[in-house]
User: What shape does this take?
Amino acid sequence: MSLTLPPRWQAMLLGWGCVGPVYHTLGALPRAAWVVPETALDRAIAFDPAGVWLYLSFFALVPCAYFACPPQRLRWLMHAFQLCALACLLIFLAWPSTLVYPPLPADGIDSEALRLLIGIDSPLNCLPSLHGALGLLAVAALWERERPWRSTAFALWGLLIFHATIETRRHLVIDLGAGLALGAAAAWLSRYLLHRRMQ
Assistant: This one.
């Protein structure tokens, strides 16, 4: 008897499931990396480990997108995630990047949570920010004009996650901007390719 996953589970596995191996495999390769420069906007957002909880909530936002988006957007979302994975495979391989990470405060539950995250995260692969790219795609998939309150809540959640990526210094503004640009490009290209396929 064959085991078939429900369509939304399949889409998440084939979409989001492509991203992790690319990120972690290339992040584990010891390489010289370009240091992303800090900007005035980064300095205006104070480093605060408390942002780690919003940063981690990204891992709830993405499943929300796959399980709560309109069914007709599911294939588009999956392909857009795959395109982001492919683009990042090329970028992370050719142009590894890092940043100057600030020291963590010695104690506190926020610092401990961030310390645990740092222990399993890669110091490389900063640009483009996958939190930015995939977060934008998740919010776009969940946006419905007919449900403005829900859509606004998801958009606000996404914005808070973007802020937290800088607040926790897991990324800088340049990384985030590049990630948002990648997400927008993947969204357009995925829609274009699906439209061409249906013609």
User: Anything to note?
Assistant: The longest helix spans residues 173-198. The two ends are 36 Å apart (CA to CA).
